[in-house]
Amino acid sequence: PSGSLFRRMASHEYSFMTNTAPLWTMGGPKVMSAARTLRKLCTNILDSPGILKYRRVRIAKVDSLLQEALLVHCGFSRLTYPDGDYWVMHRVDEALLRSVVKELDLALSTAQSLCN
Hints:
This protein has 116 residues and is an alpha+beta fold.
């Protein structure tokens, strides 16, 4: 019985992280930096949704840190401007971004408490 419970738990390991699971499954030393970066992107957009500089980020700045699927899920799409390639959020889904930030806050605080 306990073995089957463990298998069920493992199969839903990140099910409570409906928006950010791909971030946590990547693991490794960059995961905390990636989480903080994504949180900063989302909170800047929530704080100033009408300002383009907060709704776009150079692909080169986050390419090795944040997975494409995660950025697309949050509402970003690739766009080429004359000065380079960017991830751009054209439509702000406030409820989704708040949910992402909530998940990131929970995960980051949990990870921090485990490190202390």
